[in-house]
Automatic annotation (TrEMBL), chain A:
<dbReference type="Pfam" id="PF13416">
    <property type="entry name" value="SBP_bac_8"/>
</dbReference>
<feature type="signal peptide">
    <location>
        <begin position="1"/>
        <end position="19"/>
    </location>
</feature>
<dbReference type="InterPro" id="IPR006059">
    <property type="entry name" value="SBP"/>
</dbReference>
<dbReference type="GO" id="GO:0015768">
    <property type="term" value="P:maltose transport"/>
</dbReference>
<dbReference type="GO" id="GO:0042956">
    <property type="term" value="P:maltodextrin transmembrane transport"/>
</dbReference>
<protein>
    <submittedName>
        <fullName>N,N'-diacetylchitobiose transport system substrate-binding protein</fullName>
    </submittedName>
</protein>
<dbReference type="GO" id="GO:0055052">
    <property type="term" value="C:ATP-binding cassette (ABC) transporter complex, substrate-binding subunit-containing"/>
</dbReference>
From TrEMBL, chain B:
<dbReference type="GO" id="GO:0055085">
    <property type="term" value="P:transmembrane transport"/>
</dbReference>
<dbReference type="InterPro" id="IPR035906">
    <property type="entry name" value="MetI-like_sf"/>
</dbReference>
<dbReference type="InterPro" id="IPR000515">
    <property type="entry name" value="MetI-like"/>
</dbReference>
<keyword id="KW-0812">Transmembrane</keyword>
<feature type="transmembrane region" description="Helical">
    <location>
        <begin position="9"/>
        <end position="29"/>
    </location>
</feature>
<keyword id="KW-0813">Transport</keyword>
<feature type="transmembrane region" description="Helical">
    <location>
        <begin position="64"/>
        <end position="90"/>
    </location>
</feature>
UniProtKB/TrEMBL annotation, chain C:
<feature type="domain" description="ABC transmembrane type-1">
    <location>
        <begin position="72"/>
        <end position="283"/>
    </location>
</feature>
<feature type="transmembrane region" description="Helical">
    <location>
        <begin position="262"/>
        <end position="284"/>
    </location>
</feature>
<keyword id="KW-1003">Cell membrane</keyword>
<keyword id="KW-0472">Membrane</keyword>
<protein>
    <submittedName>
        <fullName>N,N'-diacetylchitobiose transport system permease protein</fullName>
    </submittedName>
</protein>
<dbReference type="GO" id="GO:0005886">
    <property type="term" value="C:plasma membrane"/>
</dbReference>
<dbReference type="InterPro" id="IPR035906">
    <property type="entry name" value="MetI-like_sf"/>
</dbReference>
Length: 425, 277, 294
């Protein structure tokens, strides 16, 4: 390559710009009371029922505010990252209100995407389950309203259990021996389908043993995955991914989807699945032959803390209609519409009283609402977590343990080192 | 006899190559509980159109289908024209910085696409301020970016085919008094047509299957989405709808096959035409 | 024509291509190099945080990371296997395709086209389904149910390589077939009249004429296979058990893009480009020594 040409090209470029492009400030400062409120919601495979509920909310909202229209766009979950990043950088394309996953919150907030919400004037908000509302907070400030939650519990095959004369486990430590016994007596079955990449199944084991991923000290996180308690939890979970329960060759590479898949295909006696997996399990060969109990905790009869997944509704920072957007958010996330959303899509509500109502009407939900009421936990709320998750730090650690590449102490110590590097960067 | 053996062998290879495709189509027709089952069989006794129904009832399927077709066809047409001219220049003429250019054309293909999305995003945003049709949220932005990514490859590729045309032929045509323009389009173009087929199929597939740029550039204009993006609705963490994904992929493959059947005649007829003319 | 006249005509032909490429690729690549010198995350992109100039900091972080070098070696070896496999299968089938009747050839081409055009995610998923340890058809037929292809590092790489070859040989095959067909009949006839054997014709007439095309498909294959992403990402679940099946592009995604660390991502992109350029230049040099002119 000719150096001269290269220099010329670079020279021209240097005149055009000397630093990477950035988006300008976008806080408009205006708060218009009329016009169009733009809303982004996640698209669903059968979104008809969801759309109907949302339309109802819109007509109620438009009835109350003259001169206001609401325009809803449905975006795909799998392309959400690019969409939101683009919206933060191009306010012209951004909505006023958006649905988003609670694990994405910290990243979106630090990117300056969402604005703080003041829920004090909203009476219903006091009934929001506190641990769920925590998933909408960063550094103590609220940036969204929990719209629905997803939580995992223990699925087991009733036919297998009654054939072998077994009862579902009542404490966390009973799971491994029970699963081992099933596989011993029925070698074609996986005792419990656990996955080396199934973070949300491993977390309850860590939490139930008194450990955590990281601890926060005034907003500064440090890894805690190498604490004795967390190590005990990791060891307990890794015990499941052994040849006598769930062979590493079949299970070490599995995430949540594949773990539940084995249960659906009738290959596993137990698995950890979410309330949202119900429909797919009911459409599988395990249909009608399974039941669900809360994942038991350390003590007999207790419930292990579960990961509180779910979606939030929030108001974007660049909005020119903050008051209207906030009001619409509160309407769509209200008890009335959460109930309707449950009826339409099966989404678990975030208000404790509404949760009780739906559980009373549908026995299937009981183990899940019971899990929610006994307290849920969450991943570290910091943008660094997005990096740790992308780098698959925890799954890699689990896989190193189950394949015997490292022992629990070394694997957790190495993971802690990587996590701390992300927290401090 | 020998041909019989060769042909059987080729057909066996074709069957092996097509088997995963067969499985894809089969999975699309299987009922949900059979797609992943402990007893996989290469048939189904309960074929169903459920998965196709789910894929086809994605809101505005027709609109997104047309968007994808329009983008892919415009990209193919423009890239053929532009790359043919450029390839001719790079093969038939000697000039300074020719090698530099050729290497640059390779370099731009080496950069990981992911790394370019952010600069391209800002570029499209500024383009849109002056020419809205080529800016964010418009199909024009997709045409531009796919064109840019297909050109370097197309130029290199056609260069090979132009180079394979004997120079004597050009000299003969010039002696016959054909103008440069006539030579280019009536002699050379048909001669490299087989190369154009491979090139255009590739450009078509790239533009047709892409969703990285579609999801980066088409932010709020839902009506300008492309089909692969719309079909992403079936991909969800922890609960993929495999039946619909397979049905959607089957539907996505059909237009490419049609496109190939339409252009494949040019794989051989390029030369025949030129020699006669 | 004078050299100057040639240059002017050439430039006229090149102008449209240069316009598109300069605007849409050269400028973004220049930006990419700039970005690689900064701490440039989502906060910086959307204007929520000031830019911080790191100089070569991103490169230091990358090159100082032991894992990067391991992944790099793996990528080169994996890409080499894929390139060689793709070229051999493609060339072999292209030659066979010239010797069979039209309908047989069309059958092969349509099957190959299907493999080529299947969206990468779907193609990888189907292969995973077929080779699944417990639910896969292949294990059922071979009677080795429970054997996991994706668990062991080497079978996992082998399976992914097979999938990559499956979806990239059609390009080589169609291109080489077109190349063979584009050789003027008179040239071959002349050789035959001179009494050359079929093998001699292939070796000393067909092959030299095909060289520019072989050059292109080889370079293109190197570039594409070096940048494999979807197949590894989908089939080994994001880089294999404990990351042992990582290749550079997946590594870049994991370390940088998924977490919006564009600065580091751009640095990886630059390093990858330089590497690829090196490999390609080496290949071109070798060709030039054997008499090929670019």
């Amino acid at each position: 390559m000719r150096l001269k040409t290269l220099v010329a090209v670079l020279g021209v470029g240097a005149v055009v710009a000397c630093a990477p492009v950035q988006s300008g400030p976008k806080n408009s400062g205006t708060d218009e009371q009329t016009g169009q409120v733009r809303v982004w919601l996640f698209d669903e495979v059968n979104r008809g029922p969801k759309e109907a509920v949302v339309k109802e909310a819109i007509s109620e909202f438009q009835g109350k505010h003259s001169g206001v229209t609401v325009d809803v766009q449905y975006i795909q979950v799998s392309s959400r990252a690019e969409r939101f990043k683009a919206a933060f950088s191009d306010p012209k394309s951004a909505p006023d209100v958006a649905e988003f996953g609670n694990t994405d919150l910290a990243g979106y907030v630090s990117a300056g995407g969402f604005s703080e919400l003041d829920l004090s004037g909203w009476t219903e908000s006091k009934d929001l389950v506190p641990t769920i509302l925590d998933t909408a907070k960063v550094d103590g400030k609220t940036y969204g309203v929990p719209w629905f939650v997803g939580v995992r519990a223990l699925y087991y095959r009733t036919d297998v259990f009654s054939e072998l004369g077994l009862k579902p486990p009542t404490s966390l430590d009973e799971i491994a021996p029970l699963a081992r016994e099933i596989r011993q007596r029925k070698p074609e079955l996986i005792g419990i389908s656990a996955g080396g990449k199934y973070l949300f199944a491993a977390l309850p084991f860590i939490w139930a043993n008194g450990g955590d991923l990281a601890k926060s000290d005034g907003g500064k996180f440090t890894a805690a995955i190498d604490s004795p308690q967390a190590r005990a939890g990791v060891a307990k979970y890794a015990e499941l991914i052994k040849d006598d329960i769930c062979p590493p060759a079949a299970c070490a590479g599995n995430g949540g989807d594949a773990s539940v898949e084995a249960f659906r295909a009738g290959k596993a006696a137990m698995t950890i699945g979410g309330d949202f997996n119900r429909k797919s399990v009911d459409a599988s060969s395990a249909a009608g032959k399974y039941a669900v109990v809360p994942l038991p905790g350390k003590d007999k009869g207790s419930v292990a803390p579960a990961f509180a997944g779910g979606n939030l509704l929030g108001v974007l920072k660049g909005t020119q209609r903050k008051t209207l957007a906030t009001e619409f958010t509160q309407l769509l996330a209200s008890k009335k519409y959460q109930q309707k959303m449950y009826a339409a899509m099966g989404n678990l509500p975030t208000f404790s009283d509404v949760q009780k109502q739906v559980a009373d009407s549908d026995k299937f939900l009981e183990p899940f609402t019971k899990t929610l009421q006994s307290g849920t936990k969450f991943v570290p709320v910091t943008p660094a977590w997005a990096k740790i998750e992308a780098q698959a730090v925890v799954p890699t650690m689990l896989q190193e343990v189950v394949t015997g590449a490292k022992n629990v102490d070394t694997a957790t110590a190495d993971a802690a080192k990587t996590m701390n590097a992300a927290f401090t960067s | 006899m020998r041909r019989w053996i060769t042909e059987s062998f080729v057909l066996v290879v074709a069957a092996v190559v097509a088997f995963p495709l067969f499985w894809m189509v089969l999975s699309a027709f299987k009922p949900e509980d059979e797609i992943i089952s402990a007893d996989p069989v290469p048939w189904t006794t309960r074929p169903t159109l459920d998965s196709f129904t789910r894929a086809l009832t994605v809101a505005n399927f027709g609109r997104y289908f047309m968007n994808s077709i329009i983008v892919a066809l415009i990209v193919v047409a423009l890239s053929i024209l532009i790359s043919f001219l450029a390839a001719t220049a790079l093969t038939r003429f000697r000039f300074r910085s020719r090698t530099t250019l050729l290497v640059m054309l390779l370099v731009v293909q080496m950069v990981p696409v992911e790394a370019l999305t952010v600069p391209l995003f800002f570029l499209m945003r500024s383009v849109g301020d002056s020419v809205p049709v080529f800016g964010l949220n418009h199909l024009g932005s997709l045409v531009l970016v796919h064109l840019a990514f297909s050109l370097p490859f197309a130029i290199w590729m056609l260069r090979g085919f132009v180079a394979a045309v004997p120079v004597e032929l050009e000299e003969a045509a010039t002696l016959d008094g054909a103008s440069r323009f006539r030579f280019l389009w009536q002699v050379l173009f048909p001669l490299v047509a087989p190369g154009l087929v491979a090139t255009s199929v590739l450009s078509f597939i790239h533009a047709w299957n892409d969703f990285l740029f579609a999801k980066t550039f088409i932010i709020s204009a839902v009506e300008n989405q492309t089909l692969p993006l719309a079909l992403q609705v079936f991909v969800k963490p922890d609960q993929n709808d495999w039946g619909a994904i397979m049905a959607g992929s089957t539907l996505m493959t059909i237009p490419v096959l049609i496109f190939f059947v339409l252009v494949q005649r040019r794989l051989v007829s390029g030369l025949a035409g030129a020699v006669k003319g | 024509m004078t050299a100057k006249g040639q240059g002017r005509t050439a430039f006229a032909y090149l102008a449209p291509a240069l316009l598109v490429l300069a605007g849409l690729l050269a400028y973004p690549i220049y930006q990419l190099v700039l970005i690689s010198l900064y701490d440039y995350g989502q906060e910086q992109v959307s204007g929520g945080a000031p830019l911080e100039f790191l100089g070569l900091g991103n490169y230091q972080e990358l090159l100082g990371n032991q894992q990067f070098w391991g992944v790099l070696g793996q990528t080169v070896a994996f890409a080499a296997v894929c390139v060689v496999g793709t070229l051999l299968v493609g060339a072999f089938l292209a030659i066979l395709a010239t010797r069979v009747r039209t309908w047989v050839r069309m059958t092969l081409f349509l099957a190959a086209l299907g493999a080529w055009s299947t969206p990468a995610v779907a193609g990888s998923t189907i292969w995973l389904f077929l080779f699944d340890a417990n639910f896969g058809f292949v294990n059922e037929v071979l009677g080795i149910q429970g054997f996991s292809w994706t668990f062991d590092k080497w079978t996992a790489f082998g399976l992914v390589a097979a999938q990559v070859i499956w979806c990239s040989f059609p390009f080589v095959m169609v291109t080489l077939y077109a190349g063979i067909k584009a050789i003027p009949g008179e040239v071959l006839e002349a050789a035959a009249l001179d009494g050359a054997s079929a093998f001699r014709t292939a070796w000393s007439v067909t092959l030299p004429l095909l060289r520019p095309i072989i050059l292109v498909v080889t370079i293109q294959s190197i570039i594409w296979d070096f940048k494999v992403f979807t197949q590894i990402y989908v089939m080994t679940g994001g880089g294999g058990i404990a990351g042992r099946n990582l290749v550079l592009n997946v590594y870049a995604y994991q370390q940088a893009f998924a977490a919006s660390e564009y600065g580091l991502g751009a640095a990886i992109g630059v390093v990858m480009t330089v590497l690829l350029l090196g490999i390609t230049m080496f290949y071109l040099r070798a060709l030039r020594r054997s008499g090929e002119v670019l």
